[in-house]
Task: structure prediction
Amino acid sequence: MKQETILRSCYSSSSFIECGCDEAGRGALAGPLFAAAVILPPDYHHPQINDSKKLSRKLRENLRFEIERDALAYAVFQVSEKSIDEMNILNATFFAMNQAVLKLQVTPELLLIDGNRFRNETGIPYHCIIGGDSKYLSIAAASILAKTYRDETMRQLSQEFPMYDWENNMGYSTKKHQESILTYGRCKYHRKSFHLKNQLKIDF
Result:
């Protein structure tokens, strides 16, 4: 089955300016959260755009170039780990998505939000769609931008703190990452509001 028969180009009609929104890094122990907003051309199709988690790193990076080239508008916004600790991850997610939408050079008429809830501060009508990054091209495109921008940042941060293996785990709670925190302690890019997967107690 071809990919374009799975991911739809629009939620309502091609005459509406729709914007897909998604985030990356919500469940990580370290690093910022990224959100992206993408407006694709009407009736846009692409055989490879899908949920970023289903794609290889190389394909995501290639698709990032194509999305940025083809989109009518796109924007990416990041929230630092310090701000995440201050406002909590849910509020940080809502904030990042709102800010990404507000950065767009084209004003959308409908927002398609990946997930089951959203706190809208844009004044633009929206729909929350569970698993939206596997259903709509614009949300999938946003997931790819958010993921590739965040991964790029985590690889840069990994050069400063190589012991945490962020080059490979992107700040998520892998066994090696947990063991590194226990050995070296937390660094300035770790989120104080997150706990290790197995709830190990660490003196922060």
